[in-house]
Design a protein that fits this description.
3 helices, 0% strand, mainly alpha, single chain
């Protein structure tokens, strides 16, 4: 049961980005129309910051649990 579920999740994760267009029409139009690319760079940096914070929080939680279990 778990192996089939894992394979299904991996297959979906592999093929889903090909079918999903994650930008709204207005954001895409603005980012494609600007020649300098500064807005696109800012959007990409914002996405990285938003994505990094949950990972840092979860890593801190795991580190705290690891320290508690070790002592």
């Amino acid at each position: 049961m778990r192996k089939g579920f894992l394979i299904t999740v991996l297959v979906l994760a592999f093929f889903l980005p090909e079918t999903v267009d994650a930008q709204c029409a207005m954001c895409r139009a603005v980012l494609e129309s600007e020649e300098s690319g500064r807005t696109a760079e800012g959007i990409n940096n914002g996405i990285v910051y938003l994505m990094a914070i949950p990972y840092i929080l979860v890593a801190g939680l795991f580190y705290f649990v690891y320290r508690k279990m070790r002592s």
